[in-house]
Amino acid sequence: MIQNLHQPRCILVTGGAGFIGANFLHHIVPKFPEVEIINLDKLTYAGNLLSLSEIESASNYQFIHGDICDLNLLHVLFDDHQITTVVHFAAESHVDRSIHTPLEFVQTNVVGTACLLEAAKTAWNLNASDPAMYRFLHVSTDEVFGALGRTGKFSIDTPYAPRSPYSASKASADHFVRAYAETYELPVIISNCSNNYGPFQFPEKLIPLAIVRSLCNDSIPVYSKGENIRDWLHVHDHCKALETIIHQGINGETYLVGGSAEYSNLDLLNILLTIVDEELQRPVGTSQKLITFVQDRPGHDFRYAIDASKLITELGWSPQYTLSEGLRATVRWYLSNHSWLEAVIDESYRSYLKAQYEIS
Ligand code: NAD
Ligand code: TYD
Q1: Distance in Å, CA 190 to ligand 1 centroid
Q2: How does strand 36-41 pair with strand 61-65?
Q3: Rounded to 10 degrees, what is the CA torsion of 47, 254, 246, 31?
Q4: CB 96 within 8 A of CB 204
Q5: What is the mean pLDDT of the chain?
């Protein structure tokens, strides 16, 4: 296992202006000042450079505005930099959007991933080099495994059974990653993680949506009766898992990442909204009254749960946050980062970007 240790010299992070990518950059840019870190992001609605203001002037960090589907740009990036490591976050990531615009998900998640694989394959001199010299970490989701019933957990042996256009596009990307490992011996690793929450998450996802709606005294939409179950992980725990996998993971392997924190949506919201009321010093129950049951999402997966034992026993990772600690830290972050939140709500983060980049 020792000979497999990977030491990045230049990391290409894709989608670093999004939720998990931005948290990952906050984690690694100051920690590894000797490593060159390039963030390639298209700046879709989910990309927000305000999330990176604290690290944007670090000498080891560079932002490149671009699309992972632009193969010429990828070849230039690999030619211009001695990229040893790819950490691939860039994706369309919201299930509800995928129901309305599935082809955008095919384009970025499938075609974009294939372009990145192709660029890495072209640049990396795989036959001549030590297999630990390069690493392509594809950041994927537990949703590729489909939906669970009341019992059982997803494991590395669970067959793929995606049920939404989002999860089908991520599953397809995972298959391309595996195919490049088998066919071209590209040194890839796949991580499949459960639902994340924490700072910088766009408020279309359940937890930041509920915090924002509660602050605005607005209704909080809960699909069906709120009985669907998700396995929640604080994004900082995910980022530490990714760092561990980059350094110690074994090429060709898959690692499942999850916090063993399963809650129904309604139970989760009751914990979260109690914390919101406590932090705002208003009567507990104020925010719960905003919960409104609405029509279910089509094809809504009932339950996700992760068996992360391989990552825990083989690589020594473990999550640090309990759900209530992580939710309290998250609520405090949103309450003390008003300017970030307001810029997202009033969409001024887009005009800030439009002034600098050609985006719509
Ligand atoms: P996000 O939607 O917040 O961010 C995605 C980022 O990718 C944005 O900055 C966006 O501008 C960028 N992007 C989109 N299309 C692009 C393109 N064609 N070229 C370059 N950049 C592009 O997503 P997230 O929640 O941070 O998720 C990151 C990754 O982690 C995704 O691959 C997702 O599938 C995976 N994942 C997410 C979760 C979760 O709970 N959020 C859980 C498991 C896995
Ligand atoms: P979401 O944050 O969209 O993540 P995912 O669909 O990838 O799991 O949703 C988490 C859960 O919350 C999921 O069961 C759908 C549900 N949900 C609601 O009930 N209401 C909402 O407004 C949203 C966005 C999600």
Answers
A1: 15
A2: parallel
A3: 50
A4: yes
A5: 96
Pocket test of ligand 1: the residue of 43, 49, 72, 93 to mutate, having most ligand atoms within 8 Å of its CB, is 93
**How far apart are alpha carbons 167 and 243 in whole angstroms?**
24
Residues with Cβ within 6 A of ligand 2?
95, 195, 205-206, 209, 221-223, 228, 230, 265, 297
- Residue 160 DSSP one-character state: P
Q: pLDDT (tens digit, 9 = 90+) per residue, 120-172?
A: 999 997 877 787 899 999 999 999 999 999 999 999 999 999 999 999 999 99
Where in the sequence numbering do the catalytic residues fall?
142-143, 166
For residue range 240-278, what is the model confidence (pLDDT) as tens digits?
Answer: 999 999 999 999 999 999 999 999 999 999 999 999 999
Which residues make beta-bridge pairs with 148?
303
pLDDT digits (tens, 9 = 90+) for 173-221: 999 999 999 999 999 999 999 999 999 999 999 999 999 999 999 999 9
* 338 CB-side CA count, 13 A: 3
Contact, 93 vs 17, CB < 8 A?
Answer: no
Locate all alpha helices (DSSP H) within the chain, ordered by sequence.
Answer: 19-31, 71-80, 95-100, 102-105, 113-123, 165-184, 206-215, 235-248, 265-279, 309-315, 323-336, 338-345, 348-354
Dihedral sign for Cα 190, 195, 196, 200, please: positive
Give the span between the Cα atoms of 97 and 300, in whole angstroms. 13
Radius of gyration of the chain (CA): 20
Give CA–CA dist 345/26, Å, rounded: 23
Which ligand is the nearest neighbour of the Cα of 89?
1
pTM value is 0.98
Would you tell me how many other CB atoms lie within 10 Å of the CB of residue 329?
Answer: 16
Span from the CA of 3 to the centroid of ligand 2 (angstroms):
41
pLDDT grade for 1, boundaries at 50, 70 and 90: very low
Name the pairing type of β-strands 262-264 and 195-197. unpaired
Distance 206 CA to ligand 2 centre (A): 5
> SS3 helix, strand, coil % of the chain, rounded to 5?
45, 15, 40
Two tokens at 218? 């607005």
Query: How many angstroms separate the CA atoms of 290 and 318, rounded?
Result: 35
